[in-house]
Design goal:
- The protein has a nine-stranded mixed sheet with strand order 1-2-4-3-5-6-9-13-12, with helices on both faces. Strands 7-8 form a two-stranded antiparallel ribbon.
- Helix 11 packs parallel to helix 16.
- The chain starts with a helix and ends in a 7-residue tail after the last helix.
- It is 49% helix and 14% strand.
- It is α/β, with parallel strands linked by helices.
Length: 616
């Protein structure tokens, strides 16, 4: 039996390694156009005195004798350069030189300073570098950013306007407003962008932008009505006062041309029926990006906007992410067969029969925990001091506000879970055969620290693979907003700040999932595991469903539940469900809930701190 288990685990371990390697190779083939596009990981000190990180995609067709248009693309707030993979894959295969940046404060770039406009948050500093590339047509340099990446494009336009020589020729603002009025001229409508070609992607269900407001600050129109607002009409009329052009109502998805300063300029607004984060993985929005720049610059390699292959890369990186998860389990099991960690292998405590009273405590605990999880998220989202830290509005010793919000919420729920488990044990469990030592809740200090050592080896080994594959293929493991990626050394120190908060949660959750709620339901333990994974993620699911049901029905988000707080729940849903399964499977091999708790905490902490905003 033992030999059979080893062989089966060896299969899964080898499969996970093959999956990570093959998916990295596959993702690399897609983003390099099967070798026709070179990819470079760039780090340099900019003219603003900051360290900048970016990925450069240079098609082989771009040469000194055959200069190509160039486009600088940027992610949004709390993201990183790889979030633009759909755009850099599609633009580069059409012959554009593409640079995807980590804005200041993100990824591998310098932490964010209080001056958000510095170097266009890094975008304009990159434009200046790109303008010096000998294979770039300096008359055709464009910028495009999603969300606050679009705001960086607006900052860059202001800097470019003041420069002796303008470098930016085309701008696509994705999921953020243009600048419509001049604050120095009593907010009169004007044309900030001059003769540049400019487009906007204005989602009909954007959580933050594309609303019109009264002078008192009240919302007058939801984002799905944006195209008919004075702002949109002024933009499409090149900064004209909308009252003066009210007889000429301009529509979405139409290019409009006018002569500005003796040059022809384009304006267009796209209004897809999408929400804010959807724009990063939307075939429609990527198609708009392609169409806009092909209209503005032409394309060295013209390919129809609807012909897209980035989804293939996204599929590869998703399977790589799955392979990474399988590796965590399989490598843990493999280590349990080694001399160093064989002492941790132990059969899990017997599954408790599902008595009527036991099921009542089981279901009651799940429901109460889910309610606390949802309400605590909403309460923290409306707590001023928590919000001030979350948005880096105040000085705080933890430099990543968004991570603090999620980690603090997790710790609050950990305390609630501990209280529920204590009550459950004293009132029910102790009288009904729950032995804290036999179930692994009290494993002894030796096994506790031994398990901690095992967890450390697993996490370090898993990320060593990530770094090796990043070095050779410049790809990571990701699906949309969940990403396992290589990082700079400073992230280790930052991770140690947040690890205690995440560890409290994932250890408490592992104890609850394995020692207090492990029942056989309908004679099958996997049903119990599936229910626990579902209830782990239930509160975030309910909040997200409620938010977008209301948004799609009324055109507005729920009062007191800001859009960013629902967006932050996207990765939480997946993470909470998956970690419950990982926790159960490792517990069954060790009868120790702390090993999986430590592994989950470390992995989630590293995922969190490497995919967000860092303030100086």
């Amino acid at each position: 039996m033992k030999t059979s288990l080893v062989k089966r685990n060896s299969f899964w371990l080898v499969l996970s390694l093959v999956m990570m390697l093959v998916t990295s190779i596959g993702a690399s083939i897609v983003q390099t156009g099967a070798g026709s596009i070179s990819v470079k990981d760039m780090r340099w000190e900019t003219s603003s005195g900051q360290m900048m990180s970016a990925l450069l995609f240079k098609p082989d067709t771009a040469t000194v004798d055959n200069k190509a248009p160039a486009i600088v693309v940027s992610h949004g707030w709390w993201n990183n350069r790889e979030m633009q993979d759909a755009n850099y894959v599609e633009l580069a295969r059409r012959g554009y030189v593409v640079v995807s940046i980590d804005m200041y404060g993100h990824g591998n770039s310098s932490p964010l300073t209080t001056d958000l406009t510095l170097g266009g948050t890094g975008m304009y500093d990159t434009v200046k570098l790109v303008a010096d590339f000998p294979y770039v047509d300096t008359d055709k340099i464009g910028v495009s950013g999603h969300s606050n990446g679009a705001r960086a494009a607006n900052f860059s336009t202001v800097i470019d306007n003041a420069a002796d020589e303008q470098l930016i020729s085309a701008i696509l603002l994705v999921d953020n407003d243009a600048v419509y009025t001049d604050a120095e001229a009593e907010n009169a409508y004007f044309n900030l962008y001059g003769a540049r070609d400019v487009g906007i992607v204005a989602d009909q269900y954007d959580e933050f932008f594309f609303r019109s407001y009264s002078p008192e600050g009240e919302v007058l129109t939801p984002p799905r009505e944006y195209i008919g607002t004075p702002n949109a009409q002024s933009f499409l009329h090149f900064g004209a006062n909308p009252e003066e052009v009210s007889s000429d109502v301009r529509e979405a998805s139409e290019f409009y041309t006018d002569s500005v300063e003796g040059e022809d300029a384009l304006r267009i607004v796209y209004t897809p029926a999408e929400n804010h984060p959807w724009g990063t993985i939307s075939k429609t929005t990527v198609g708009s990006q392609i169409e806009f720049f092909q209209e503005a610059f032409g394309a060295p390699n013209e390919i129809a906007a609807g012909s897209q292959v980035w989804q293939v890369k996204e599929t590869f990186t998703l399977f790589g992410l799955i392979g990474f998860g399988i590796f965590l389990l399989a490598f843990t099991r493999a280590l349990l067969s080694t001399r160093a960690f064989t002492g941790l292998r132990a059969p899990a405590a017997a599954v408790v029969p599902a008595t009527r009273k036991g099921l009542a405590w089981f279901w009651g605990g799940l429901v109460v925990s889910a309610i606390i999880s949802g309400w605590s998220w909403l309460i923290l989202a409306n707590t001023p001091w928590v919000g001030a830290i979350a948005f880096n509005a105040v000085q705080f010793f933890m430099p990543q506000g968004a991570v603090f919000f999620v980690a603090f919420w997790a710790a609050v729920n950990a305390i609630a879970a501990i209280i529920i488990m204590v009550i459950s044990y004293l009132v029910f469990g102790r009288k009904n055969g729950l032995d804290l030592r036999a179930s692994g809740v009290l494993p002894g200090w030796k096994k506790f620290f031994h398990g901690l050592g095992l967890s450390f080896v697993v996490v370090v080994s898993a990320y060593a693979i990530v770094f090796v594959l990043d070095y050779f293929f410049k790809t990571d493991f990701r699906w949309w907003v969940v990403a396992v990626k290589a990082f700079t050394p400073d992230k280790v120190g930052i991770a140690l700040m947040y690890l205690p908060l995440f560890a409290i949660y994932f250890v408490a959750n592992s104890v609850a999932v394995n020692a207090f709620n492990r029942f056989s339901i309908r004679g099958k333990e996997w049903i119990n595991t599936a229910l626990l994974a579902f209830f782990n993620a239930l509160a975030p699911i309910v909040l997200v469903v409620a938010q977008y049901t209301n948004f799609f029905t009324t055109g507005y988000t729920i009062d007191g539940f800001g859009g960013i707080f629902s967006i932050w729940l996207y990765p939480v849903i997946l993470i909470l469900a998956v970690t419950a399964v990982i926790s159960r499977k490792i517990y069954r091999e060790t009868n120790n809930p702390y090993i999986a708790g430590f592994i989950n905490a470390a992995i989630v902490t590293l995922i969190s701190v490497t995919n967000t905003l860092t303030a100086a």
